[in-house]
Specification:
Elements lengths: L14 E3 L9 H8 L2 H17 L4 E5 L8 H17 L3 E5 L4 E3 L2 E3 L5 H7 L2 E5 L12 H12 L5 E4 L4 E5 L2 E5 L1 H5 L22
Parallel strand pairs: 1-2, 2-3, 3-6, 6-7
Antiparallel strand pairs: 4-5, 8-9
Helix pairs in contact: 2-3, 3-4
Length: 203
């Protein structure tokens, strides 16, 4: 497999996830696959066949809710899947939850970034939603410094949301564009109305 992903590969790498349309992850099905060698092998074969039959250049794997006791099994799954896809000339990107910082230490939960980085072609993770965390010296800098200590920097891909944000003292909340533009539709003139002519200076 390649050491890094070409930009031209991304459009042909569909997302494979255990998260349904309701936003809930099918944790039971995932852990059942990881907990049984035969099920895991068959699952890898099915994915490899799907990629090969579709002439895909790769996939982005987004399996959420890995049980804490199955961390090494998930790493093994990614290693075996990566090998199967590489044999078919395809690549594997793995999307993982953004680590949390507890007591100054970054915690990646059930996802072993170091092990995943040895086999996946890319590790994708969400950057902090609050833009105030993305300034120099902010939370994102700390996260990236930790991330490059776990996996090759050329394999890391931070994802930034394109949604509008409502910033408050409680943090950043994603909102639709229609809601973000709503205050502009509620502008009103206060006081007496005046006529402004083209070229007139307004003070």
């Amino acid at each position: 497999g390649a050491d890094s992903l070409s930009a031209s590969v991304w459009p042909s790498m569909p997302l494979l996830t255990n998260v349904g349309l309701d936003g809930q992850a099918d944790v039971a099905a995932l852990n059942a696959i990881l907990g049984d060698e035969t099920s895991m092998t068959n699952h890898i074969k099915a994915i490899a066949k799907w990629v090969s039959d579709g002439a895909l250049k790769g996939i982005t794997l987004d399996y959420q809710g890995v049980d804490a006791g199955l961390t090494s099994r998930f790493s093994d799954f990614v290693a075996d899947l990566s090998a199967a896809l590489h044999a078919a000339g395809a690549q594997l990107a793995v999307r993982v939850p953004t680590p949390s910082q507890v007591g100054g230490v970054w915690d990646a939960g059930s996802y072993d970034w170091a092990a995943l980085g040895q086999n996946a072609d890319a590790i994708r993770f969400a950057a902090p939603a609050d833009p105030r965390d993305c300034v120099a010296g902010g939370a994102l800098d700390g996260l990236l410094a930790w991330a490059v200590s776990q996996a090759p920097r050329q394999k890391l891909a931070a994802e930034f949301s394109a949604l509008s944000l409502d910033l408050s003292g409680q943090g950043a909340k994603a909102i639709p564009v229609s809601q973000a533009l709503l205050p502009l539709s509620q502008l009103a003139i206060q006081g007496d109305k005046i006529e402004i002519l083209p070229g007139q200076v307004v003070t």
